[in-house]
Amino acid sequence: MKIVGVIPARGGSTRFYNKPLASILGKPMVWWVYQHSMEVKCFEEVYIATDSEEIKTVCENFGAKVIMTSKEHDTATERLYEVSQKLEADLYVMINGDEPAIEAKDIVKCIPVDFNKEEFYASNLMTDFTDPVEVVDTSNLKIVTNKDGICLFISRSPIPFPKGGMNYAYQKFVGVGAFTKKALQYYHETPRGPIEKIEENDSFRFIENRKDIYYINAHCKTISVDTPKDIEKVEEYILGYAKKIPVRG
Predict the structure, then answer these.
(1) pTM
(2) Cβ atoms < 10 Å from Cβ of 245
(3) CA-based, 20 to 30 A from 184: which of 30, 70, 86, 206?
(4) What whole-number distance in Å separates Cα of residue 208 and Cα of residue 48?
């Protein structure tokens, strides 16, 4: 089986311009994601998918393979779909370019032990909240699954509501997922539904159409960078690593 890692790295965001190039301890954020992704042993190749010539140049300078993609994509999954049309693989694993703290041992948890490359398969990672304040923060997506790990609903609101009991661990979205080409094709060909538009989460492309997307609890540390203020938190966490990340390039 050919499994590839793909890091979407969009340039030109109005909220956080050129976020993938934001400096974290002297290295661009996308560099940190690339280092972790290169440590995943089952990846045959790792690519950075971008729409920015500036990001392309920076990434190639530290030795990464880059695939140029359209500036018209609204979501990272749509960018991954374009990659799937240019690059043949059995499974495409997306590691969001704003997840600099995610580690290789957690990335692999979205990859099924056995799968049919010709069939529909989609998965994503989640993890437990450790700070109660984050549960009510609307920037954090809350995930609810059934007993088999199939996603039932995602919301920026705290769900489920603890009316019947308090013995529940809330889970949040982690920007790592795995897709077969058939799943990406389905995503591309299916229009956005009303819930996806309201919640602004593209997993609903599958949920609203009764297509199973698995959410796997990686029990990992994640610090998604949404604003420049998040950089400080990431740097504090990285400096606390017991083991330094090896430098490539």
Answers:
(1) 0.92
(2) 15
(3) 30
(4) 29
Pairwise CA distance, residues 174 & 83, whole Å: 21
* DSSP E strands, 105-236: 122-128, 142-145, 151-155, 171-179, 214-217
CA 16, CA 116: separation in Å to the nearest integer? Answer: 38
CA 210 to chain centre: 22
| Residues 158, 219: Cα–Cα separation, whole Å | 19
Number of other CB atoms surrounding residue 120 within 10 Å: 18
Q: Which stretches within 150-222 are classed as H helix?
A: 181-189, 194-199, 204-207
Over residues 114-138, the pLDDT tens digits come to 899 999 999 999 999 988 888 998 8
Q: Among residues 90, 35, 92, 89, which one has the least CA distance to residue 62?
A: 35
Task: Report how far residue 129's alpha carbon sits from residue 77's, in angstroms, rounded to the nearest whole number.
Answer: 24
- Please list the residues that pair with 215 across neighbouring strands: 124
- Domains located in the chain, CATH noted: 3-126+173-239 (3.90.550.10)
CA angle 125/25/230 to nearest 5° reads 50
CA atoms within 13 A on the CB side of 131: 8
Q: What is the mean pLDDT of residues 80-105?
A: 96
Distance of CA 191 to the CA centre of its chain: 21
For the chain, the residue count is 249
Residues 6+ apart with CB under 8 A from 244: none
Q: State the maximum Cα–Cα separation within the chain, in Å, rounded to a whole number.
A: 55
